[in-house]
Amino acid sequence: MLMTEIAASLSDADLLAAYAAGDMSAAQVLSARLLPRVMGQAVRMLGDRSEAEDVAQDAMIRLWQNAARWRTGEAQVSTWLYRVVSNLCIDRLRRRARNVPLESVADPADERPDVVTDMQAKTRLMALSEALAQMPERQAQAVALRHLEGLSNPEIATIMDISVRSVESLTARGKRALAALLAPRRKELGYDDA
Amino acid sequence: MPDPDKDDAMIDALLADVRRSAPSDVDPALMSRVMADAHRLQGVAAPRPVGIWTQLRDAIGGWPTWGGLAMAGCAGLWIGVAPPLAVETFAAGLIGTSETVSFFGEDEILSTEGTSDG
């Protein structure tokens, strides 16, 4: 059995290999390491904690399923997870945009007090999520990875499997699209004096 | 009137606020579900050694193909042992029937007369 202290010093790929070989403590260390980031990315894109938890669980299931086939050195676990979470969130945003009227999106079902305590922050989070749902999906993905996750353009290029130049173009157009969608809500979002 | 600079500033401020304020803490119940999935999928994750019979079976097409082969073999054996009339008629029409012609009468073949020295 791999000791938890040793596991903590291993890379994500090494931990995944240890899990595939039957070591559950490696899965525990890996989950503790990756899940907060996965969860944060999903909440920022979806604006809803309950949906974000579903996405996070789904992303981790895909990670466990791919553990035995993972080839160290080919792709970073974190890069792969960014892509998986981003795609899962975009899928949900698309479905939301197709099926659900915006009024009901703006009022999330999850009303637990720890979701976002500040009402203003909650309104902004939901407004951004609604806007991302209405944008072309590659633009939404690029904007979210650049401005919500703080990744560099080369990192985003790897995640989205496109050139750095394409990332720059997508993020620029994405921000213009966001401005067009959200500028009319300036007052509601509390940026009247910005 | 739209002001692009003002709109840009608002979007930058919104993105920064969302990035700062969105919670990323993990509920213990979610962690439990993720670990339960990891337990459940460990068998799937571990690569199993593949034996020669498994490789052969997979190369041919798996169990359904083996079943088909077995059924075809049994049917062929049955037709060979007890051919139905239709098969005999069809075969006769295709390749004709065989006739046995003997140049000696049956009595001549079976008779022992004249074959002894004494």
In short:
The complex is a heterodimer of chains A (194) and B (118). Chain A has 194 residues and is mainly alpha-helical.
Provide the succession of SSEs of chain A. HHHHHHHHHH
Main sheet makeup of chain A: none
CATH topology of chain A: Butyryl-CoA Dehydrogenase, subunit A, domain 3
Q: What is the helix tally of chain B?
A: 6
Largest sheet of chain B: none
SSE pattern of chain B: HHHHHH
Shape of chain B, please?
Answer: rod-shaped
Describe the structure.
The complex is a heterodimer of chains A (about 190) and B (about 120). Chain A is an all-alpha fold. Helices cover about 70% and strands about 0% of the residues of chain A. Chain A has a single domain (about 5-185), classed as Up-down Bundle (Butyryl-CoA Dehydrogenase, subunit A, domain 3). Chain A is elongated, with a radius of gyration of 18 Å. Chain A starts with a helix and ends in a 12-residue tail after the last helix. With about 120 residues, chain B is mainly alpha-helical. Chain B is built from 6 helices and no strands. The model of chain B has no long low-confidence stretch (mean pLDDT about 75). The interface of A and B includes residues 115 and 183 of A.
